[in-house]
Automatic annotation (TrEMBL), chain A:
Keywords of the record: ATP-binding, Cell cycle, Cell division, Nucleotide-binding, Septation
Sequence similarity: Belongs to the ParA family. MinD subfamily.
Residue ranges of every copy of the CobQ/CobB/MinD/ParA nucleotide binding domain listed in the record: 5-226
PANTHER family: SEPTUM SITE-DETERMINING PROTEIN MIND HOMOLOG, CHLOROPLASTIC (PTHR43384:SF6), SEPTUM SITE-DETERMINING PROTEIN MIND HOMOLOG, CHLOROPLASTIC-RELATED (PTHR43384)
Pfam family, one: CbiA
Gene label: minD
InterPro entries cross-referenced by the UniProt entry: CobQ/CobB/MinD/ParA_Nub-bd_dom, MinD, MinD_FleN, P-loop_NTPase, ParA/MinD_ATPase
Subunit structure: Interacts with MinC and FtsZ.
Physiological role: ATPase required for the correct placement of the division site. Cell division inhibitors MinC and MinD act in concert to form an inhibitor capable of blocking formation of the polar Z ring septums. Rapidly oscillates between the poles of the cell to destabilize FtsZ filaments that have formed before they mature into polar Z rings.
Protein name per Swiss-Prot or TrEMBL: Septum site-determining protein MinD
Transmembrane annotation, as ranges: none
TrEMBL record, chain B:
Pfam families: MinC_C, MinC_N
Family designation: Belongs to the MinC family.
High-level lineage: Bacteria, Pseudomonadati, Pseudomonadota, Gammaproteobacteria, Methylococcales
Record protein name field: Probable septum site-determining protein MinC
Organism whose genome encodes this protein: Methylomonas fluvii
Known partners and oligomeric status: Interacts with MinD and FtsZ.
Keywords: Cell cycle, Cell division, Septation
Domain of life: Bacteria
Domain (Septum formation inhibitor MinC N-terminal): residue spans on this chain: 13-85
InterPro entries registered for this protein in UniProt: CAP/MinC_C, MinC, MinC_C_sf, MinC_N, Septum_form_inhib_MinC_C
Domain Septum formation inhibitor MinC C-terminal stretches: 145-243
Cited function: Cell division inhibitor that blocks the formation of polar Z ring septums. Rapidly oscillates between the poles of the cell to destabilize FtsZ filaments that have formed before they mature into polar Z rings. Prevents FtsZ polymerization.
Length: 270, 246
């Protein structure tokens, strides 16, 4: 049986798709057969971040409507043979998704995949609720600012009440906090909520902190999951997160301000 | 001289409407001796419970089946068994007239939930056991919540509500009784929502958006003068919310 992970947030633009791509790639690189599904029907993005936009033939909605088989729609990643992408449809909207259809796809994928990563759209409407409905684990991506934190809190409420596990009275979804776009400098200046502030409000297990980093935008633009950029801080942060999720103990990084050398202090560059 | 009514007279009485639970004797047979015998059996089961108990006599079943009965006789029998009849309902003109002659008012059938087709004879009086059971089930309508109550969630308790986790901003918790919160209260908490002015809110860290007891509320602006991270209790005194340290 596969483990179904939903990457969700409530608010848009916090890094759900970046996280989905990085986590899926990270799991696959460690040898686990992983599928990543874009649930953002109508605003398809995951294929761009994964760099497979020119290979999309069939999509999630085609499979739901029985217009294509799952194997026809799954795109095998060129960099890692354990990773498969199921893109969203760009020409349809979220009403094309049905609980039965999504359930059937996840059940079929569960047979030979180890992990299924569901990239949730923003909001709490159909696409988002269907992405999380079948989940076993939830990665709640939050930016260190009040509106993102509140939206995450709302999403956590929905996770604990409207999922399949909640409705069947099973063990609840395991929820993890991923704090993204974190900038210790700005926290120090009081411009941003600190890890502790967010933790206090959400009372959630912190899986990792992803620093605000130029490498994320570069990676997105080039269609490479940022985890493959092993030199970058964000790439390392995601690698840590995958390791922690798989049960390894890794100390948290990127929470404290970096000590600047004399040289960079003088010239103000990084 | 007490006749000269002063203009600002003190109010001595007030008419109010209330609804109360009264046993109803629903008659299914017009056989007086059978009624007498079965009443006796019932009373023997719980003599203290039925002693001087008010009783409403319901004749709708009899009249639906056109079974004539002398209302005066029924009243005499139930009085004999220690009941205090307080009226009649579902009676015909003759029976209502008899009742009035004995100073017993006529009650409307509104609120009567007896299906007329039901031919089962029993179901006349609640037994003390059933009454006790009802009370017991009411007392366990308190609610315990151990998970954080997230933004957008609403929790309602018919009795007291006990939360051992945080109540997030944007969440709403309501109770007909008291509210206890052992985490931070950042959302809205409304105690005594059905008007119980004696209900209270207890919380270990007051950062609420709104607190209310029996409809009297305060917003976070008014609450900001109270320090957070300190256990407090909130009660209602003469239409004013009182916040005190515990």
């Amino acid at each position: 049986m596969a483990r179904i992970i939903v990457v969700t947030s409530g608010k848009g633009g916090v890094g759900k798709t970046t996280t989905s791509a990085a986590i899926a790639m990270g799991l696959a690189k460690r040898g686990h057969k992983t599928a990543v599904i874009d649930f953002d029907v109508g605003l398809r993005n995951l294929d761009l971040i994964m760099g497979c936009e020119r290979r999309v033939v069939y999509d999630l909605v085609n499979v739901i409507n029985n217009e294509a088989t799952l194997n026809q729609a799954l795109i095998k990643d060129k960099r890692c043979d354990q990773l498969f992408i199921l893109p969203a449809s760009q020409t349809r909207d979220k009403d094309a998704l049905t609980t039965e259809g999504v359930g059937k796809i996840l059940e079929e994928l569960s047979k030979d995949f180890k992990y299924i990563v569901c990239d949730s759209p923003a909001g709490i409407e159909r696409g988002a609720t269907l992405a999380m409905y079948f989940a076993d684990d939830a990665f709640v991506v939050t930016n260190p600012e009040v509106s993102s934190v509140r939206d995450s809190d709302r999403m956590l409420g929905i996770l604990s009440s409207k999922s399949r596990r909640a409705e069947n009275g099973e063990e609840p979804i395991k929820e993890y906090l991923l704090l993204s776009r974190y900038s210790p400098d700005r926290v120090k200046l009081g411009e941003m909520l600190s890890v502790d502030d967010v933790q206090e409000i959400l009372s959630l297990h912190l899986l990792g902190v992803i620093p605000e980093s130029k490498s994320v935008l570069n990676a997105s633009n080039s269609g490479t999951p940022v985890i493959l950029d092993e030199q970058s801080d964000a790439g390392q942060a995601y690698a840590d997160i995958v390791a922690r999720y798989l049960g390894e103990t890794k100390p948290h990084r990127f929470i404290e301000e970096e000590k600047k050398g004399l040289f960079s202090k003088l010239f103000g560059s990084k | 001289m007490s006749t000269g009514a002063p203009t600002s007279q003190k109010i001595a009485l007030e008419f109010k409407s209330t609804s109360l639970t009264v046993p109803v004797l629903l008659l299914a047979s017009n056989d007086i001796s059978l009624i007498d015998q079965q009443l006796k059996e019932k009373v023997v089961q719980a003599p203290e419970f039925f002693k001087n108990s008010p009783l409403l006599i319901d004749l709708q079943k009899l009249n639906a089946q056109n079974l004539p009965i002398d209302f005066t006789e029924i009243v005499a029998i139930v009085r004999q068994h220690g009941f205090m009849p307080i009226g009649v309902r579902g009676g015909n003109e003759q029976q209502n007239g008899d009742a009035l002659a004995m100073n017993l008012p006529q009650h409307s059938l509104h609120g009567s939930n007896v299906p007329l087709v039901n031919k089962a004879p029993a179901k006349t009086l609640p037994t003390p056991a059933a009454e006790e059971q009802k009370q017991a089930s009411q007392s366990i309508e308190n609610k315990l919540v151990t998970q954080p109550i997230r933004s957008g969630q609403r929790v309602y308790a018919k009795g007291d509500l006990i939360v051992t986790a945080t109540v997030s901003a944007g969440a709403e918790i309501m109770a007909e009784g008291n509210i206890h919160i052992y985490g931070s209260l950042r959302g809205r908490a409304l105690a005594g929502v059905l008007g119980n002015v004696n209900s209270r809110i207890f919380c270990s860290d007051l950062q609420a958006e709104l607190i209310s007891i029996a409809g009297i509320y305060q917003l976070s602006d008014d609450l900001s003068k109270y320090p957070a991270h300190k256990p407090v209790q909130i009660s209602l005194d003469n239409q004013t919310l009182i916040i005190k340290d515990i």
